Amino acid sequence: MTRKLTLPVRVFGVLVLLLSSALIVMSQNPEKVLYSFTGGTDGGQPHQGAIFDQAGNLYGTTFYGGTYGAGTVYRLSPNGDGTWKQTVLYSFTGGADGGYTDWGRLAFDAAGNLYGVTVFAGQYGQGTVFKLAPNPDGTWTESVVHQFTGGEDGTQPRTVPWFDAAGNLYGTAAYGGAYGCGTIYKLTPGPGNEWTFGVIHQFMDDPACSSWVGLIPDTIGNLYGTTRNTLGGCTDPPQECGTVFKLTPSSDGTWAFKVIHQFSGGDGGSDPSVSGLIFDEPGNLYGLTEHGGKYSTGVFFKLAPGANDSWAYQVLHHFDGPRDGGQPIGQMVRDASGSLYGAAAQLGPYGYGTLFKASPNSDGSWRFSVLYNFTGSDGAYPLGLVRDSAGNLFGTTNMGGAYGNGVVYEFTPVLPCAVCQKLQHHGSE
Fold it and tell me: What's the pLDDT at 172?
């Protein structure tokens, strides 16, 4: 006698199939380690993400290792079979050429030269801005664009250099300057690889102090950035709540400085110092704080421009630590739909950080989901991201991997089923 399945049994069977499909999708590891640093002559502990050239090669820096132990500049080139070849382009000596690249990523100029900063060493022991020029034989020649003295020019540059259309280079020094709070500088190219250095702002606890990340421009030439410290109104000692600031150029070459948001700690987040800002098409700014929020593990925030150069601050997500990670740092990237992708450097289910996606809804709310949880062997403490034309994400981890000294990885986003989305979705705040 044939027995028909009752509705609850049939529904249960469908759910089992759906869950099985979800597990299959989620078990397909979309993260691939392209290279594990040994900490030897190849370098160790990449502190920020890599960048692409037009041929699809990745370039980045390591904090230590190399021939002299003071860090490296490296290139990863795809072999065509899915593997990648790592090449050290330059090993810092820790002498007059500088050393220890810390949080600064590299930047290309229009001619294909690479620029970056070292946080220590140099002629005066205060860091450098350097240039790497490619040679016809495949080698690269290093030169120092500026030696920081620790005086009014600043010390410990940690940021990604930024070029304007005229080829001028801008950056920040975290400390030093006239008031000890760091500087914003401009380097103007001249003949014979000579550069003219000028300070366009001296931080003086106004209330901003100590900028660790690069500047980004809007469509009309204003520059924006963040600082680590702030005075007044900060509930998170030791006074590392931070600010978001704006620089407006004048026709006489001066720049007007304005703090557009001052973090107060607590639920509003604190310390945006090691995460870059990013614009959307309408001109809203987005960023991350390393600390603060409801769970004290950072927030994802938005700044919307208003009348009379006012800006409305909104926390879009509070990182909760064990589920979706904590201490989000590094550069976020945006896709064509307006979704943002980033990394939380710590915590998550395995304690080694996460990759996340934040997508806007039509009603102004945001959907937040965890894309990947690092386990340690595949990397630990992920930093900033870069995105290729196919939508794949590339990044570095500061530690973990086969030798514990960090990795370069590729992450291929997959379109999860509805059950997977529900399993991954944590909602917007």
Answer: 93
- Give the other-Cβ count within 10 Å of 110's Cβ: 8
The span from the CA of 7 to the CA of 76, in Å, is: 56
pLDDT at position 119 is 92
Give me the percent of the chain exceeding a pLDDT of 90: 72
| Cα 186 versus chain centre, distance | 22
Nearest one of 154, 141, 219, 212 to 182, comparing CA atoms: 154
3-state secondary structure of 251: coil
Residue 230 has a pLDDT of 59
Residue 193 pLDDT level (bands cut at 50, 70, 90): confident
Residues 377 and 41: beta-carbon distance below 8 Å: no
34 touches 84 (CB < 8 A)? yes
Contacts of 375 (CB under 8 A, 6+ apart): 350, 352
The radius of gyration of the chain's CA atoms, rounded to the nearest angstrom, is: 23
Q: Does residue 159 contact residue 215 with C-beta atoms inside 8 Å? A: yes
Cα separation, 429 vs 364, in Å, equals 11
Compute the half-sphere exposure of residue 183: CA atoms within 13 Å on the CB side of its CA.
Answer: 22
Q: Which is more confident, 102 or 139? A: 139
Contact predicate 242/273, CB 8 Å: yes
Whether 29 has a pLDDT exceeding 80, the answer reads no
CA distance 314 to 329: 18
Q: In one letter, which amino acid is 124? A: Y
Rounded Cα distance between 24 and 21, Å, is 5
What residues pair up with 352 in beta bridges, in sequence order? 347
What region does 389 belong to: left with phi over 0, alpha with psi -120 to 50, or beta? alpha
pLDDT in tens, 265-306: 899 999 898 888 999 999 999 999 999 999 999 999 999 999
Task: Note whether 102 and 158 are within 8 A (CB).
Answer: yes
343 and 350 Cβ atoms separated by less than 8 Å: no
Is the pLDDT at 12 greater than 50? The verdict is no
Q: How many CB atoms lie within 10 A of CB 85?
A: 12
Q: How far apart are CA 407 and CA 49, in angstroms?
A: 10
Exposed, middle or buried by CB within 10 Å (0-12, 13-18, 19+), for 409? buried
Using an 8 Å Cβ cutoff, are 420 and 19 in contact? no
DSSP letter for each residue of 325-373: BEEE-S--EE-TTS-EEEEEEEBSTTSB-EEEEEEE-TTS-EEEEEEEE
Tokens representing 136 are 């016809």
Q: Please give the pLDDT value at position 136.
A: 95
Q: What is the DSSP letter of 246?
A: E
